[in-house]
Amino acid sequence: MNVMETKKTSAPARSGLTLVWIVLPLLALAAAIAWIFAADPLGRLDNGAPPVENLTFERTILNDRGLQLLVRAGGSEPMTIAQVQVDAAYWTFTQSPPGEIPRGSSVWLNIDFPWNLADTHAVTVVTNTGASFDHEIAVAVPTPTATSGQLWIQALVGIIVGVVPVAIGLMFYPALRNVDQGGMNFLLALTIGLLLYLLIDMTEEALEIAGETAALFQGRVMVVLGAFAAFLILMAVGRRHGTPTGLALATYIALGIGLHNFGEGLAIGAAFAAGSAGLGAFLVLGFAIHNITEGIGIAAPILKKRPSLWIFAGLTLLAGGPAVLGMWLGSLAYAPQWTAFALAIGAGAILQVIVEVSAYMVRSNARNFASLSLSPAVLGGLGAGIMFMYVTAAVVKI
Fold first, then answer.
1. C-alpha–C-alpha distance, residues 154 and 21, integer Å
2. Per residue in 268-322, pLDDT tens?
3. Which of 13, 267, 301, 358 has its CA 20 to 30 A from that of 66?
4. Which residues cross the membrane (predicted)?
């Protein structure tokens, strides 16, 4: 037998031995877990203390049948809901599905309570161990239902705060086409500035909402991991054919802004479904002005191109359309963990766009990063983008 034949026969043997050494630790782990559950060696440490219980309120629905609360158990053991108080009085309730609530599972609590319009109501859920969990209904208003009229109204609001501002911003395209390199640097820096503001705002909101999620979702960790994963995936996809420029870069900017507007729509829809805010004409106008610079940012990478009107329409819908979807989902099927995750994905997408726009600006200036970073046009654009978003955001903060 020659050397080559010896190598061929030994290779399968090594593969089989490697597989054995992978399987053996897994079998040992399975045996240890089975022994722990069968022998219960930790049972001797039980001193009779009640189990750790946690209950998260995820949705609140108010209608002519009373209150419906979606709650999720997050304790160390299954928990049983014994009583429900509303405004310090006990009320009858039904649970769907009935019985114990396993860890991580959710149930609906249907409370036959005659709530009063525009009043504040305090709900307390008491378990069979005596633990209590509080939930406040800030302003009692009927929860929107999925009627055609309601969806049209929400779509109209979403178009006004999402699609229209982006379209107005893109209308500056003809006036911006003749700018020199300094003007281009200003516009690109303006884009980076507004994206930086959106990144900070979206991250803050995602972390805030993550604090409302059940402990098992590890909300803040989920936000960080979701944003990091979105950033890496979009970087890999965006650079599979080289660094994005022109229309490709504008598309990524529109995508990042669209994900931000989706998260913004989720928050707006949830706020009005919960009755915690009223949407007046002044507030709608504030949202619209706040988002106008987004269209300018999308236009910046394609000023040297001649896209068709269909391209502009597509970029407008990509950036502004998700606000409509966000409002629908936020008002009809809001869940804090998914809202926080959606915002995290948007934050990761915006970070990817910031990196690509910055790289594009450096390449456009013969890679002279040192002088570019101190350029008045760049510093002015960066500051203008951040300040415009900050000042106009003061109008829409509730």
1. 59
2. 777 666 555 555 555 566 677 777 777 888 887 888 788 888 999 999 999 889 9
3. 267
4. 16-38, 151-176, 183-200, 220-238, 245-262, 268-289, 309-329, 341-362, 374-396
**Which parts of the chain fold into alpha helices (H)?**
3-39, 148-158, 164-170, 173-176, 181-210, 219-238, 246-273, 281-299, 309-320, 322-332, 336-364, 369-373, 376-396
Q: How many CB atoms lie within 10 A of CB 128?
A: 13
**What's the Rg (C-alpha) of the chain?**
27
Q: What is the pLDDT of residues 309-362, one digit of tens each?
A: 899 999 999 988 998 888 888 777 677 888 888 888 888 888 888 888 888 788
- All structural domains of the chain with their residue ranges: 55-137, 148-396
Q: CA nearest 391: which of 200, 197, 199?
A: 197
**Which residues, in sequence order, are bridge partners of residue 94?**
110
Nearest Cα residue to 256 out of 184, 333, 178, 196: 196
Evaluate whether 255 touches 355 at the Cβ level (below 8 Å).
no
Q: Dump pLDDT digits (tens) for 197-239.
A: 888 988 998 899 888 888 888 889 999 999 999 899 888 877 7
Q: Which CATH architecture has domain 55-137?
A: Sandwich (2.60)
Q: What is the pLDDT of residue 361?
A: 80
143 exposure class (CB count in 10 Å sphere: 0-12, 13-18, 19+): middle
**What are the tokens at 42?**
């930790």
Average pLDDT over residues 13-39: 79
Q: What's the mean per-residue pLDDT of the chain?
A: 82
Cis ω for the linkage preceding 25 (within 30 of 0): no
> 79: which strand partners?
101
The alpha carbon torsion through 319, 320, 326, 331 (nearest 10 deg) reads 170
In the block, which residue shows the tokens 């959106």?
198
Judged by DSSP in three states, 152 sits in helix
Q: Look at residues 73, 99, 59, 68 and name the one whose alpha carbon lies nearest to residue 86.
A: 68
The region, left, alpha or beta by phi > 0 then psi within -120 to 50, assigned to residue 243 is: beta
